[in-house]
Design brief:
Number of domains: 4
Order of helices and strands: HHEHEHHHHHHHHHEEEEHHHHHEEEEHHH
Number of helices: 20
Shape: flat
Structural class: alpha+beta
Strand content: 5-15%
Helix content: 40-55%
Distance between the termini: 74 Å
Number of strands: 10
Largest sheet: 4 strands, mixed
Amino acid sequence: MLKQTLQQTQTTKLSPLQIQTIKLLELPMLELEQKIQREIEENPVLDEVIPESEEEEAANVALDSYDRDDPTPSYKLHVNNQGKDLKPQYNTFSVQESFHQNLIKQLGFCSLDDRKRQIATFMIGMLEDDGYLRRDLDSLTDDIAFRLGIETTEDELEEILFIIQEFEPVGVGARDLRECLLLQIAAKNQTPSQQLAETILRDYFNEFSRKHYPKIMSRLGVTNDELKEAIEEIQRLNPRPGGQIDDSYSEQTQQVIPDFILELREGELVMSMPRYSIPELRVNKRYADMLIKGSNANTKAGKDAVVFVKKKLDDAKWFIEAIKQRQNTLQNTMNAIIDFQREYFMDGDETKLKPMVLRNIAEKANLDISTISRVVNCKYIQTHFGIFPLKYFFSEGLLNEDGEEVSTREIKNVLVQIIDNEDKTSPLTDESIVEALSEKGYKVARRTVAKYRDQLGIPVAKQRVELL
């Protein structure tokens, strides 16, 4: 028997201002400038004005002077992002071109329509630093619908992913290690040993991973020497095409504009946010006049014009307010990070870098974790001891033998040192690494060692054996 029930659910719908703010939060300085310029070009109500006198300042009126029914105060319709110098030189830094930027550059040579190019760009942004796409395509369709407003399917995403997988470095865009290695071996000249390597990866990957070599030789009917040559081909492949440990950068340099500047003045940390060439924005007087006068509202064309201008005025209001909210959110987040890591920021001593996760800063800044994640993405800070991406300061923490918290970065560095110094003819097992870490004062479980080793791209002990 079917039973009908009425259930009331509560859903949250983001406002245009919230959507605009979320999108702006993720943009680094250069992309923000480009976004503002595009908005000015597309919205005739937005003006970029550099006032030269009080008369010129007075000539640009606020929106509430023209729309009496709009309760929005005038301060929300004007944003001044100018520094003292209207056209300052960027205080840029030479850093290496990121792995993701290199892929975007290659995407520019592909023959794709705007829609698929947007999707491809988004998918490239979802690749992790080691080059893998670990989000499943079904989840990506939802992300793309929300973030880009584009409806797509798993089949279409797979087609676009195949295009990305043709980029350099070979193996990028793989969804697991097997696919990564297969992409690389398929791109080679296909000698007999490479053909055998491809067969092993495609059909006997589990046996290969577990080093069940006799089983592989029996099933494929190959000799020990033939198998050895094929394995050597596989070992020459790169399991992390996006970069090595904490290194997602190629040798090509570019210029990065810091979003924050931190200075040490008379023993005090002083943070500022450079404005560079982000323009002052305000409402265009001519279009505001059009709205108040009604543009001959008795005609259809006049009514359409008023509707158009009102929409553009709303868009301008949301955009200007979103920029203000972006500025405030970035400032609050960075202040929270500096306060949390104050001892480290005084002199840049990495041993003073406290374990810190997004939740710590979200609680301190009274913001959502998702907001902190967006702020941290692709942002840089210039300090008196170097320039760093904000992601650098985040890590999980564990306790040492004295009960003090240490960052995972510190433990990973020690773990790498231990493995670098091991006897390569008899590599250390994870249990042995636990003991070695314990001798150095770090209390780490075996499963934690395995997780860190995997994150660092270091294989298990039996796969680190080197023949004499």
